[in-house]
C-alpha cells in the first residue's frame, strides 16, 4: 500500500474568550496508506474530532501540514467525505433525493443516466431500496446513518472520514452497520479514518488504532497494528488469538490516561518542609506481598517520622503502570522489579534511555515458578521433566506468564528453562501478564504456568489450580526482588528527600523482618487498598525448606527477606548480572559503558547515609559471588565472556549507551 494521507507535525491551538490559548493537539505525526482503515481513540477532549476535521479540511492546523496524495489540504473537498454522528440529512428530501443532491453537485462530469444508476447502486448497497422514497422523519436512526454512508460513498471520495458514526445506535443496529461498512470498504478498497470511543468497534474495523493522550497538548500515545486477517466477522473475530490482547492494550491505555488525569488534578507544587526539598510524594506499587515495606512505612508512620508528611501510595495493576508513571513524571518514586532501573537506564522503554537510581533493595526472594495442575499429574517435577513433556506433547506451543521483561521473574524463569535445555523463545511462548491476573489465566487455560511473586503462587496451590515446580531459592538463593527506584534527575533535585525516603523504607524493612510483626503486616497487606486478598494467602517468612515440597496439598510460602546482612544495600554485581541476562535474551543491547551505568544506577551513598543516620552499623554487606543452581558462577570481571559461555541465548549486541539527565517534566 502506498502513502495516501500524511499528517506532519500538526499542532492546533484555540483562542479562549479571556484572551488565553488552549493547545488541543501538539506534534501529531501520522501516515495513512491507501486502502487502510485507521481508528482514532481516546478520552473526550483528546482532539480526535479536531484531528479528523483537519484531515477533512473543515479546520486548519495552527502549525504543521496535512496532505492527501502529496497535495496540501487547505479546505473541504469532495475527495474527502465526512459521515457525522448526527446524520446531517435534509429533512424535506427523501433518501434518494438526499443521495442525489450530493451526486449531482459533485459528479457533474458524468451523464445523468449514469448518476441515477450510481444513486440506485448505493441505495442497494446499504439495503434501503424499500425506503428510497421516504423522508428522514420516517426512518430509524440506523437507517438514517446508512443514508449518510451511502451519500458519502456515492460521490466516490478518495477518503472516507467517520466521526463516531454508530455512537447513537442500539447494539444490534450498530453491529449490522459495522459489518456492512467493513464489506463496503473491503470490496471498494476505501481508505477510511474513524473517530470512536468503542474499543471493540476499533479492533473489529481497523487495520491500525491510533491512541491519543489526554489534552491539553494531546499527542499520539501509541499505534496498534491489528493483525486479524480480513474478511472479518463480528461474531468470529473474538476467537482470534490477538483479539483480547489488542483489546486489553487499548483498555490499559485508556485507564492509564484516566489515572494520569487524576494525578494531574491532584498534583500540587512541591512542599518543602523539615529541611526536605519535598514532603508530598506519590509512590507507586504493585499489589504483591513484596510491597510490604511501602505499606508499613505508610501505615506505621515511618514516612511521617522522617519528615515525609504527605505520602500517597499509588496502586498500579502492572509494572507497565509503574514505568509509565515514572517516565511521565507522575510518580516521585516506585517499588520496581530489581532489573527495571538498569532496563530503563539503557533504553528498554521505547528505545529511549531514562536514567534511574536505586538506593535500596527492599526485598529478596519471594518468587516461584508455578505450573498448571495437569503437569503435576503428568509427572513434571523439574525443568528436565518439563523438557521431556514438551518433546512428547502433541499440543500447540505452551505459554508461560511473567510480569515484565526487566523483572527477576522473567530472568529467573528464562534461566530455569534454559538450564533444562528449553529455549524460552522457541520451545515455549512467554507472555507479559499483570501479577493479579495470573491465576485467572491459569484457570482459564490460556497459560500453562508462570513465574510471579507471592501471594499468587501460594494461592494457585491452595486453590488447586497449579503447583510450585521451583522456588526462586532453588534457582538463586538470596536474589534481589524489589528495589526502590527514582529518576536520576529527581534524585539530584531532591537529595535530602531521597535520603529520608530510604530511611523510612529501611526502617519499614526491619519492621517486616521481625517475626513478631508478621500478623500485623499480613493484616495490613490484605486490605482492599493494597493486595485485596484473603489473609490466608499472605505469608512473609519461611516455614518450609528451600526446596519445593511437591506433596499435595502443597503449602509453599514466600521466603521473603526484608532485612539483614547483605539484604538492603544495592549491589553493582547483581545489577550487572541482570544486565547480562537482559542482553542474553535481546531485551537490551549489552552496554559497552556498563561500568558507568552501574555507577549511576546504584546510589550506594544514599543507602550508606540512611543506614548511618539510623544507627544501623552492624550489618555486613558482602554477599559473595553469584552462583545459581546449575553451578555456574557469574564472572563480574568479564561479563562478555560470561555471555558468550551461555549455551542458549539470542545473538546479543554490544553498544555504547548515551545517557543524559533530562529535566523532570510531566508529559
Descriptive report:
The protein has 667 residues and is an alpha/beta fold. The chain has 2 domains: 3-259, P-loop containing nucleotide triphosphate hydrolases (Rossmann fold, 3-Layer(aba) Sandwich), CATH 3.40.50.300; 273-364 and 479-535 and 564-625, D-Maltodextrin-Binding Protein, domain 2 (3-Layer(aba) Sandwich). Helices cover 36% and strands 19% of the residues. The protein contains 24 helices and 22 strands. It has a 6-stranded mixed sheet with strand order 6-7-8-3-9-10, with helices on both faces. A 5-stranded mixed sheet has the order 12-11-13-20-14, with helices on both faces. Strand 9 (208-212) and strand 10 (220-225) form a beta hairpin. The longest helix is centred in the middle third of the chain and has 24 residues, at 243-266. The protein is elongated and about 95 Å long. The two termini are 34 Å apart. The relative contact order is 0.09. The model is unreliable at 663-667 (pLDDT under 50).
Amino acid at each position: 500500500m502506498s502513502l495516501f494521507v500524511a499528517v506532519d507535525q500538526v499542532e492546533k491551538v484555540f483562542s479562549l474568550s479571556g484572551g488565553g490559548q488552549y493547545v488541543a493537539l501538539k506534534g501529531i505525526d501520522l501516515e495513512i496508506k491507501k486502502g487502510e482503515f485507521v481508528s482514532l481513540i481516546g478520552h473526550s477532549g483528546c482532539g480526535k474530532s479536531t484531528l479528523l476535521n483537519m484531515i477533512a479540511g473543515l479546520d486548519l492546523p495552527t502549525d504543521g501540514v496535512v496532505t492527501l496524495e502529496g497535495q496540501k489540504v487547505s479546505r473541504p473537498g469532495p475527495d474527502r467525505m465526512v459521515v457525522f454522528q448526527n446524520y446531517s440529512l435534509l429533512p424535506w428530501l427523501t433518501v434518494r433525493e438526499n443521495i442525489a443532491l450530493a451526486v449531482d453537485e459533485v459528479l457533474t462530469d458524468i451523464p445523468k443516466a449514469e448518476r441515477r444508476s450510481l444513486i440506485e447502486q448505493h441505495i442497494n448497497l446499504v439495503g434501503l431500496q424499500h425506503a428510497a422514497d421516504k423522508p428522514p422523519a420516517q426512518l430509524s436512526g440506523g437507517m438514517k446513518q446508512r443514508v449518510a454512508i451511502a451519500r458519502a460513498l456515492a460521490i466516490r471520495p478518495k477518503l472516507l472520514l467517520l466521526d463516531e458514526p454508530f455512537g447513537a445506535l442500539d447494539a444490534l443496529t450498530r453491529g449490522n452497520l459495522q459489518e456492512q461498512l467493513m464489506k463496503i470498504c473491503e470490496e471498494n478498497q476505501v481508505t477510511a479514518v474513524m473517530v470512536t470511543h468503542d474499543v471493540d468497534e476499533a479492533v473489529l474495523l481497523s487495520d491500525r488504532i491510533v491512541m491519543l493522550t489526554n489534552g491539553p497538548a494531546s499527542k499520539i500515545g501509541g499505534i496498534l497494528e491489528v493483525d486479524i486477517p480480513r474478511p472479518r466477522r463480528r461474531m468470529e473475530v473474538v476467537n482470534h488469538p490477538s483479539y483480547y490482547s489488542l483489546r486489553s492494550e487499548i483498555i490499559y491505555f485508556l485507564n492509564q490516561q484516566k489515572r494520569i488525569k487524576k494525578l494531574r488534578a491532584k498534583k500540587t507544587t512541591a512542599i518543602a518542609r523539615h529541611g526536605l526539598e519535598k514532603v508530598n510524594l506519590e509512590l507507586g506499587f504493585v499489589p504483591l506481598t513484596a510491597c510490604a515495606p511501602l505499606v508499613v512505612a505508610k501505615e506505621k508512620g515511618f514516612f511521617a517520622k522522617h519528615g515525609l508528611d504527605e505520602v500517597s501510595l499509588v496502586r498500579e495493576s502492572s509494572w507497565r503502570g509503574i514505568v509509565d508513571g515514572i517516565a511521565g513524571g507522575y510518580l516521585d518514586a516506585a517499588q520496581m522489579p530489581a532489573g527495571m532501573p538498569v532496563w530503563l537506564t539503557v533504553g528498554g522503554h521505547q528505545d529511549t534511555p531514562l536514567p534511574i537510581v536505586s538506593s535500596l533493595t527492599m526485598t529478596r526472594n519471594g518468587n516461584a515458578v508455578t505450573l498448571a495442575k495437569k503437569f503435576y499429574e503428568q509427572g513434571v517435577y523439574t525443568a528436565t521433566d518439563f523438557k521431556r513433556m514438551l518433546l512428547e506433547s502433541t499440543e500447540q506451543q505452551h505459554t508461560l506468564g511473567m510480569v515484565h521483561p526487566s523483572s527477576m521473574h522473567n530472568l529467573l524463569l528464562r534461566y530455569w528453562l534454559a538450564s533444562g535445555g528449553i529455549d524460552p523463545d522457541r520451545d515455549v511462548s512467554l507472555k507479559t501478564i499483570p501479577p493479579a491476573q495470573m491465576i485467572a489465566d491459569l484457570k482459564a487455560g490460556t497459560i500453562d504456568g508462570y513465574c510471579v511473586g507471592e501471594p499468587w503462587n501460594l494461592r494457585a496451590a491452595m486453590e488447586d489450580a497449579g503447583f510450585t515446580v521451583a522456588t526462586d531459592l532453588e534457582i538463586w538463593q538470596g536474589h534481589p526482588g524489589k528495589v526502590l527506584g527514582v529518576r536520576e534527575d529527581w534524585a539530584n533535585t531532591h537529595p535530602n528527600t531521597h535520603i529520608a525516603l530510604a530511611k523510612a523504607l529501611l526502617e519499614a524493612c526491619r519492621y517486616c523482618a521481625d517475626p513478631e510483626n508478621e500478623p500485623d503486616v499480613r493484616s495490613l497487606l490484605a486490605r482492599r487498598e493494597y493486595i485485596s486478598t484473603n489473609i490466608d494467602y499472605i505469608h512473609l517468612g519461611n516455614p518450609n525448606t528451600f526446596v519445593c515440597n511437591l506433596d499435595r496439598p502443597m503449602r509453599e510460602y514466600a521466603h521473603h527477606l526484608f532485612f539483614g546482612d547483605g539484604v538492603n544495600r544495592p549491589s553493582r554485581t547483581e545489577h550487572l548480572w541482570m544486565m547480562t541476562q537482559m542482553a542474553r535474551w535481546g531485551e537490551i543491547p549489552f552496554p559497552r559503558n556498563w561500568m558507568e551505568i552501574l555507577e549511576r544506577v546504584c546510589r550506594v551513598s544514599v543507602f550508606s547515609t540512611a543506614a548511618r543516620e539510623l544507627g544501623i552499623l552492624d550489618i555486613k554487606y558482602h554477599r559473595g559471588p553469584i552462583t545459581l543452581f546449575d553451578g555456574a558462577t557469574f564472572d563480574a570481571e568479564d561479563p562478555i565472556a560470561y555471555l558468550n559461555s551461555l549455551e542458549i541465548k539470542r545473538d546479543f549486541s554490544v553498544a555504547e549507551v548515551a545517557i543524559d539527565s533530562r529535566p523532570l517534566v510531566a508529559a
